[in-house]
Amino acid sequence: MIFPDKRQILNSDMIREIAGASISEASGSDLNSEYASIKKAAFAFVEGAVRGDQSYISLENRELAFIIWILVAIDENIITARTIIKARDTAEKQLIGAQHYEDLEEFGRRLGIDISVEGEQIKKDHLYRLDVTDFATYASRVTGSRYRLSNQIVRAGYVYVQNDVMVKILREAFVSFLFGVMDQIRKEDAVTLLRPVSDDLERIKEAYRKAHGSGASMGKGDASMFPPCINEIIKNLESGVNVSHMGRLALASFLHKAGYSEDEIVSYFRNAPDFDENITRYQIKHISGEISGTEYTPPKCETMRSNHLCYMDDDPLCHREWMKHPLTYYEVKRRNRKIR
Amino acid sequence: MAGMVSQKLIDLFRKYYRENMIDPPELISKREVGYMTFSGEVIRHLRVNNKFELNMLLRDAAPMHVYSSAAYYRKPDERKMPEKEWEGADLIFDLDSDHLPGAEKMSQRNMLAQIRDQTSRLVSDFLMDDFGIPRSSIKIYFSGNRGYHVHVSDDRIYRLTSDARREITDYITGNSLDESIVRKAISMLAIVSGGWPAVIRRELGDNANGGMIRETEIRKAIKKAREDHSVLIDSPVTYDIHRIIRMPNTLHGKSGLIVREVPIDRLQDFDPLQECIPEQFMDGEYDIILPEKIRSVEIGGTEAPRMPGRHRVKTYVAVYLVASGRAVFP
Ligand code: SF4
Known about the structure:
The complex is a heterodimer.
Chain A: H1 6-9, H2 12-20, H3 30-51, H4 61-74, H5 77-96, H6 101-110, E1 116-120, E2 125-131, H7 132-139, E3 153-155, E4 158-161, H8 163-183, H9 187-193, H10 198-213, H11 215-218, H12 228-238, H13 245-257, H14 262-269, H15 277-287, H16 301-306, H17 326-335
Helix pairs in contact in A: 2-3, 3-4, 3-5, 3-10, 4-5, 4-9, 5-8, 7-8, 13-14, 14-15
Chain B: H1 7-19, E1 33-36, E2 42-46, H2 51-61, E3 65-69, E4 71-73, H3 81-84, E5 86-89, E6 91-96, H4 108-130, E7 138-142, E8 147-152, H5 155-158, H6 162-173, H7 179-186, H8 195-204, H9 215-229, H10 235-239, E9 244-246, E10 261-262, H11 272-275, E11 285-290, E12 298-299, E13 302-303, E14 309-314, H12 315-323
Antiparallel strand pairs in B: 1-2, 1-3, 3-9, 4-5, 6-8, 7-8, 7-10, 11-14, 12-13
Helix pairs in contact in B: 1-2, 7-8, 8-9
């Protein structure tokens, strides 16, 4: 069972020791071998998530802590989103299986959510009580009538819910918690601390690149799955409105990553006021790494935003906490059309 | 006449701002301030640091409408939303009698009374009873024309996301009620009672006894509960966390009335058409022209003239009729 613990996750001494632990060391102490297995489990978890492995892998606190540092060090949005979602689902399974309501209470307490129990626990005739603002915050991320505030018992600032609803609330709060902790770790620190395992980090990045990186293997999806920012750029280009350099770069690299061919990408630029086929092709070759050798990744949401290219409006997916990259949007939509 | 701005009206608005020292909303320096001039120009993304600056601005501009954001920003004067750096926002509710069913056929007095009752139910049933918001965190304002605004400033709600606020507006309007889920909740009311399930249970009356509630009955009860209990709020005002809303203590450009705070315990007998007239408009009389016959209007206890032609009326009647577009100054 995981009990999220911010202090533990941010404990860099522990992380350093886990990163440095080695199984082969003859003089290995108990703690050393324990850390070595934590390290192994953490990497296995991230790799599973990257592969899209659906199977359940249990998770414990220190593994989770190490995973968080791995994600910060790799700093690749799709890897992060996938791993966090897998961790979320793992936590959810654990919460569903929890035998005592105290486990949910404790889990909530760690996330800053005050839960208490109303009614008789013995007869399973009880409800969980939580603050209405906590409910509204986290339930709003779950679809379905079961989770709407309107359908709940609400009284004097509290909402009273059954077990299944409580679990979903905690699950979403857990995601917020994880992103919150990640924000507190500097990438340089993570890279430094995880230097002993830099090979493993590379291996994950490589596995990810193999699976998704080379545009073609990602398979081409249709434009209805594009995020609002990309659609806006396309719309502007089509109607002959001038699009900033950054905007063009974002579109071209996005389409490339989404598996579109050079010819197809060129066609998107045909209506641009200053369209020049040769230059456009040259630029696309640059972006795709054919000329420069390094593939250009489209900018993340934050960068898009500060360049006035984000058009999230009230697109629910864009408002998700883990939505940090237009490609994540595309990938999530491709895997689940109906997701909000 | 359309598009023609009356200098007399502007002067009267300026007089109000010259002779008053407007109290700004709390933490004004963190809010975006905006206004609309009588010529229709909208100026937004202003930062006003204090009461003094606000009053200088208003005296100078003599605006038709004045707004400030419900949100607090680190940089309220940035033009792009993401760059303003949102820190939090009050929770705002907008109740407008124009949205009442059958509003076209109601008298002005009746409309205002009905929307006042809805405002009162919003505050007592939803905000205080259900959400447990302390009375001291709630402020009610006459909107300046046809309704009320309710502002909640509370640490608990300050950081609520737009989605979370949508959950709240859904609740108040009784949206998303689902028969089978409500049925389940009703069976739990023995443990704790409250919210829509309790209201629907009451509507069911004796039908709820004996365990089995029939499909049609619960559907009817939900419909009835919504009619009786929901409150007519303009939801986007609440969940748009960047919106600018009418600033308290300023004048509404379509009525010349003050957006005035109404103490919660005075709401029941509050009459905005008496109590929101600026002192500056109480004295003196003006000539106005009514181009055509109008529906009856009562303001400040006087019945305004209705027939086309030239009339001599009290200043506040003149302001009200001209600002609302019913009359012109000669
Ligand atoms: S949030 Fe991200 S994906 Fe959505 S529109 Fe903005 S930049 Fe694009």
